[in-house]
Amino acid sequence: MASRLSSILLRPNLQTLSYVTRAMSSEVLFQHTGKVGLITLDRQRALNALNAPMVEEMTKKLKEWRTEDEVEVVCIEGAGTKAFCAGGDVVSITKKDEDESVALNFFHDEFQMNHMIGTYSKVYVALIHGITMGGGVGLSVHGKYRVATEKSLYAMPETAIGYFPDVGGTYFLSRLPQPYGMFLGLTGHRLKGADLKHLGIATHFTSVENLPALKSDILTSNASNIESVLARHEVELSPPFSLDPHEDLIKHCFSADSVPEIISRLQQDGSEFAGKLVKSLLRMSPRSLVLTHRLLSIAPSKTYEECFTMEFCAAHQIVRSGEFMEGVRALLVDKDNTPAWNPAKIEDVTEDMIQEYFVDRTRTWKPLEL
Fold first, then answer.
1. 5 pairs with which residues across the strands?
2. Catalytic residue at 130?
3. What would the pLDDT profile of 222-279 be if each residue is shown by its tens digit?
4. Helices in 67-99 by DSSP H: which ranges?
């Protein structure tokens, strides 16, 4: 739903004026300073999780800035110190009194916004400081520049709630050094700090202490010098990649052709790390694991747009199946941590079940017409 906007004129800054615009919901803030448009997610009590009004307002503003010559760079950040964006507010779209169209409408619009970020004509910079999960990844990873700090915490944990890595996740995970994308997509493993730069999820790495100075310089930058601004604030990567000790195990196990084979190889490995992974995988939705494996196996042959189309088709079916709603209930609402997955065992997930996720429904997804 469209919401009215209120605007505040700030003190002139040398040769530029700075305008701040806040949606009436007070959950997303827009600032235009010089050649830079700044988006601040400001829903701190919910770790800046996305809801439908936020998606609508950001989409509207990104479309507006896309046609403004005065905006050359768009930067996005999360308010506070804890999170960039912890993901989509899945609890709000899976309430018992809501029909499935609420969730599908949210995914449809969110996917359109994410897709637009990856094809955006202006330079796009995401400051992914703090928790960056699910929908937060979709807001950042498709942009040209992603800046992590030592407090960044990244994950795509969807299989734990009966869903799959969406928001273009099939595209970017399948294009990471493999099989790390498969590993992250299936397990929801959390990467911290410098790990994001090591794996290519972040393009730059800076310190928390340096973040205010970086933001200040970004706000006075333009398209021609933004790259040098980001480079000037980079700090040396001191911690090695945390998954280096497990590289051989990940490559051997997660290159397998099926989820049962992945688990079998992990069990045969017998290491403590492998054991933890098995325990974690066996708690997740069997359908989601098999579906995620299939999506990430297919995605390398798909274009950027085709990945979003494929994801929306899968989202349609997974919402209708009730698996997603059950996962959200068990882990995020009732918090009994005992989801009743259907089926309960990976070996009972049939090919017919998985093929259902690739059948076009009456409602299809298309990119925004710009």
1. 23
2. no
3. 999 999 999 999 998 878 999 999 999 999 999 999 999 999 999 999 999 999 999 9
4. none
Which of 72, 158, 269, 311 is the catalytic position? 158
Residue with tokens 């710009």: 370
Position 143, amino acid: G
- Concerning whether 166 is annotated as a catalytic residue, the answer is yes
Which residues, other chains included, contact 62 with Cβ-Cβ below 8 Å and sequence gap of 6+?
Answer: 74, 113, 116, 117, 120
- The first and second tokens of residue 175, run together, are 């294009």
Question: Rounded to whole angstroms, how far apart are CA atoms 136 and 39?
Answer: 13
Helices 259-269 & 272-281, crossing angle to 10 degrees?
A: 150
Q: What's this model's pTM, rounded to 2 decimal places? A: 0.91
Q: In what order do the strands lie in the sheet with 83-85?
A: 83-85, 131-133, 153-155, 191-192
Q: How far apart are CA 234 and CA 22, in angstroms?
A: 31
Helix, strand, coil distribution of the chain in percent, nearest 5: 45, 15, 40
- The string of pLDDT tens digits covering residues 262-273 is 999 999 999 999
Active site residue 269: no
